[in-house]
Amino acid sequence: MRSAAFVTLFSFLMVIFLFGISFFIIPDSSFSVQENRSLQTRPAFSFRALLSGKFTAAVNDWYADQFPLRDRLVGIKSAAELALGKGENNGILLGENGQLAKRLFDVRHPDGTVTKKTDAADREQLQRSAEGVNRAAANATVPTVFLFTGRTLDLAASCFSYPVSGEPIDEFRSVLSENVCAPDVITPLRELFESGEAVTFRTDHHWTPLGAYYAYTAVMDALGREGEILPLSAFEASVVSESFFGTFWSAAGFKDVKPDRVELLLYGNEDTFTVTEDGNPRQGLYRPEALFGKDHYLIFPGATYDVVTVSKPGGGARPRLLVAKDSFANCLVPFLAQHFEIVMLNLSSVKNDFTDLTALSETYRADAVLVVYTFSNILEADVLPRLK
Questions:
Q1: Model's pTM, two decimal places?
Q2: What's the domain range around 346?
């Protein structure tokens, strides 16, 4: 009996030992293809980082991100969570018809600290964000529209038993001044979703081209160009992928959830446009080679480039629209490009600050400005409070 107990104890300690040294033997991975995100690599030590707590926090993230067999263990954990009746894994909810939605966010506070994996918004930070929007609207010298897109949980609430409160969004919008042009696209998209329209992906946080089309009509109306709106019937639906697994699927590891379909809405002239991404031109609105990778959403123009222009050579003089955006605009721009020369600026850039909308509209000689920003980024980032 003692020998059996010794073997058990020895085996247990050996497993722990092997896992422990594997962190120092196996090279770090800087990116997770399955989760489509950057991973924490081994942090550099400094006494300043240690005393501030940043070093230990980075070490915790390093252990979590570089754990051996991590992708397989995430799948096992998700199956276990479902078996226990939790209906979620890693903060991702599993709803009806395989609909996924993010419940937990890393919420930023006004002092720069971040509360990780919470569903409670910081009211003061929401107010600061709204005040930044007010300032930018007051300083605007050209027509400016703010499009605040909803979280999947806001649009697809009917698929989940989790109680969804619109209070944070309502509170944010209540602080906006009367001169801010910010059409509500969350309510109509929620109604369209409940009527059976596929306006948001099941496994990803973005809206679909169909959802973006309805947002396009709202933008055109807000810019006073409702008479130019192209009807949905003018576009031909083309399924380009039936195997898209988005960010929610990657984070949750729900292996039994079926992939999304990517269906483009084509006007027929998409190949005539020139898209220039950080100075590199290419022909055509869409990037079909993205379908050979994991993230099929990269088929849309924009990706994570800092400055992207979309032009139509030989299209004559057209007004120029400056789009300060996050990734939700990538799916929207193909519709707007039918009417405008487009300049897209990435508000999430780590290299450039694109928050001075007034100066940027003059620099790029814009006839109008569109800000596209999702509510989850309002919770997690500190961009809108710096708008001017």
A1: 0.82
A2: 100-386
